[in-house]
Amino acid sequence: MHLAAVGGQSVVLDVQNDRYIGLGADLTKAALHLLEPGDTPIGDKALDHARDRLVARGILTDQGQALAAPERAAQPRTTLWPALAVPERAERTRWTGVPSALWALTEAQAALSSLPFHKIIRWLEREKTRAARREGDLTAQQLIDVFALARPWFPVKPICRLDAVALCLLFWRQGRSAQLVFGVRLEPFYAHCWAQEDEIALNESDDSLRQYAPILVI
């Protein structure tokens, strides 16, 4: 279970069942206290009552299984997207990378359409660890250009999970430390995911991402 605090409320991501659970102010206070007792004071009686409610909602177990602490990811402050579609940026070295981008899209689509969410997460963690030992010679902007050139040839309409996962696979296999970030917002609730490297958004505007609180980072 992963938790993101949003204002005085919070959202829990149940990876095992691929669902989001909203928590009001009282349960948020209790959940944060369970994660970091010194930071959120709460009385014993109120905490026991909140713990029972969290167990009833499947967020905690009777054995006291803890939530994961809120995820950390740098807030995107700039972006490399969209790629600049000018002739000199579409030289042969970029086109030779298109098959790699199409293969990453194919793998991502296959995983997203056939595996439960928790297995997708484990697969991505393994892929990132395995790829960390690799080295590549393409810059972040070149990889984004490759992806932008390949994407129109992949016959699935753009959707955040597919594109962010595929772009991260492409970056990881060039030895780059991209992050796949899942985030949430409230009022209205919306869940989203994207790729970023440090403070650089990779597949969309950084302005659009600052409204989300990270809930899971790979």
Strand order of the largest sheet: 4-7-6-5-8
Main β-sheet: number of strands, strand sense, barrel status? 5 strands, mixed
How many angstroms does the end-to-end distance come to? 14 Å
Q: How big is the Rg?
A: 20 Å
Total discrete domains = 2
Q: Please indicate the percent range of residues in DSSP E strands (runs of 2 or more).
A: 15-25%
Given helix and strand content, the structural type is alpha+beta
Mean pLDDT: 87
Q: Stretches where pLDDT falls below 50 for ≥5 residues?
A: none
Output the helix-strand order. Answer: EEEHHEHHHHHEEEHE
Number of H/I helices = 8
Shape: elongated
Helix percent reads: 40-55%
- Count all strands and give the number: 8
Description:
The chain has 218 residues and is α+β, with helices and mostly antiparallel strands. Helices cover 40% and strands 18% of the residues. The protein has helices at residues 25-35, 44-56, 92-95, 98-114, 117-131, 140-150, 160-172, 206-209; strands at residues 2-6, 9-14, 19-23, 78-79, 179-185, 190-197, 200-201, 213-217. The strands form two sheets. A five-stranded mixed β-sheet has the order 4-7-6-5-8. Strands 1-2-3 form a three-stranded antiparallel β-sheet, with helices on one face.
Main attributes of the structure:
alpha+beta, elongated, Lasso peptide biosynthesis B2 protein, McjB_C, 3-stranded antiparallel β-sheet, McjB-like, 2 domains
Task: Give a quick summary of the entry.
With 218 residues, the chain is α+β, with helices and mostly antiparallel strands. The chain has two domains: 2-56, no CATH class; 78-217, no CATH class.
